[in-house]
Amino acid sequence: MANTIQQILAHLPSVDVLLKEPSIKTLEDQYSRATIKEAVQTVLADIRQAVLTKEREELPTQEELRERIQQKLAIHSFSLRRVINGTGTVIHTNLGRSSLSPRIKEQLEAISFHYSNLEFDLESGQRGSRYSHLVAILKKLTGAEDVLVVNNNAAAVLLVLSTLTQKKEVLVSRGELVEIGGAFRIPDVITSSGGTIVEVGTTNKTHLKDYQQAITEETGAILKVHTSNYRIVGFTESVTIKELAALAQQKQLPLINDLGSGLFIDMRRFGLPHEPTVKEALEQGCDIVTFSGDKLLGGPQAGVIVGKKEYIQQMKQNQLLRALRIDKMTLAALEATFELYLDEAQAIEEVPVLNMLAQTEQDCLNKAERLAELLRPMTTLEVKIEKDSSAVGGGSYPEHLLPTYVVALKGSLNADELQEAMRNADTPIISRIKNDWNYLDVRTIDPQEFTLVIEGISKKFGNKSDV
Ligand SMILES: *Cc1c(COP(=O)(O)O)cnc(C)c1O
């Protein structure tokens, strides 16, 4: 028997009543109250509308209501979400590598949400090139003649090799046949770009004469690869960039250097060993240098190619470039990030990756004390401060750790369960387990994120009824 419209509407539960319903209340484990309330309101409004237009003539069951609310919530919550990085690994590939500088927000927004001169020359009113926008700034920062950017450094290496060494031999030291995470292997990249690999030297020692002897008519380039994520120690020898550059020049071959991270700042100021910057690599005679946008540069995911114009012009003609093309948001973020590097002190302050590396042991202790102090009254967990070490990450400086302090947490749950609970916070908190404690390394947590950490933890392990 059909109900009248008024009868159905009168029996529809109110928002407040529904929110108190136990089956709805349990959703608070996953979602904020505001989000649930919004979903409840929308679902009830939809049902009311359907009743008014006579699309439905019966009251929803409790089960249907819950199901529909849950569906709404699922849409609400994105798959890709912000997290708190408590691991202390600064360039954490699984957590998005480097986070961008807040200073570039305005530029990123202006280019993303409006039209731009992406491929339009404002001076002539003619078609322009998206790759032109980085030329001036990189010339200033590195002295490079020309620049090209693609999706990531793997793509950069692929484009360089497939342009310059197609059907030719590529000389690489046996000590530099690197595999970067995600199955990027230098020998395979050379092969898939249509070249042939010629291994020179041995794993631990490669001499200049090894390169000299390997050069033939078929040689297309000498490739030097930064051994980012490992070190060969002990009885070792490798050839300097300068020596290789002289040889390459004499034989009229391009010297390509895959720098991996691509530094713009001398890392000794962070207590890390010196490694050549992009500028130094070019000055020492590399013809082409490639590096990532989102490793130590602290920009967006990108692969940057800098060097001699004659080679980069050839790469611009390569069909492959279209498939590896960088988008405007990335370009905007990259140009704005490079802009910060014009003033080194500003870059260190405002590029999060550099800022995190620059934090001293004492800075970390101060931060840890603050977080622990805020946390203690809010949680039933045991809270203590420990000395520990953070990693640079992203395959950079694999054996150099930075001294830090962590806030360590322990509760009635075991360490794995506690870690999982923190991962399920509204803003997931990613911790590291050591000796049965969950470590939150403050090096990679911005003080502005402390509120989110406290909210997340107190919601699950709070000792106050109002939190
Ligand atoms: C990281 C790295 C790459 C890959 O760079 P992506 O930007 O991750 O594609 C290539 N070569 C070296 C030496 C690296 O360290």
Automatic annotation (TrEMBL):
Molecular function, one GO term: L-seryl-tRNA(Sec) selenium transferase activity
Assigned keywords, A-Z: Cytoplasm, Protein biosynthesis, Pyridoxal phosphate, Selenium, Transferase
Task: Give the principal location in a single coarse category.
Answer: cytoplasm
Which catalytic reaction applies to this protein? L-seryl-tRNA(Sec) + selenophosphate + H(+) = L-selenocysteinyl-tRNA(Sec) + phosphate
The UniProt record lists the L-seryl-tRNA selenium transferase N-terminal domain at: 9-48
On this chain, the residues bearing N6-(pyridoxal phosphate)lysine are K295
Q: Where in the cell is it found?
A: Cytoplasm
Q: In which pathway does it act?
A: Aminoacyl-tRNA biosynthesis; selenocysteinyl-tRNA(Sec) biosynthesis; selenocysteinyl-tRNA(Sec) from L-seryl-tRNA(Sec) (bacterial route): step 1/1
A Gene Ontology biological process noted in the UniProt record is: conversion of seryl-tRNAsec to selenocys-tRNAsec
Record-listed E.C. numbers = 2.9.1.1
Q: Tell me which cofactor or cofactors this protein depends on.
A: pyridoxal 5'-phosphate
Q: What InterPro entries does the record point to?
A: PyrdxlP-dep_Trfase, PyrdxlP-dep_Trfase_major, SelA-like, SelA_trans, SelA_trans_N_dom
User: At the top level of its lineage, which domain of life is listed?
Assistant: Bacteria
Gene Ontology CC annotation, any one: cytoplasm
**HAMAP family registered for this protein in UniProt:** SelA
Reported function: Converts seryl-tRNA(Sec) to selenocysteinyl-tRNA(Sec) required for selenoprotein biosynthesis.
Which family is this protein grouped under?
Belongs to the SelA family.
Protein name per UniProt: L-seryl-tRNA(Sec) selenium transferase
Which organism is this protein's natural source? Enterococcus florum
The organism that produces this protein has a lineage beginning with: Bacteria, Bacillati, Bacillota, Bacilli, Lactobacillales
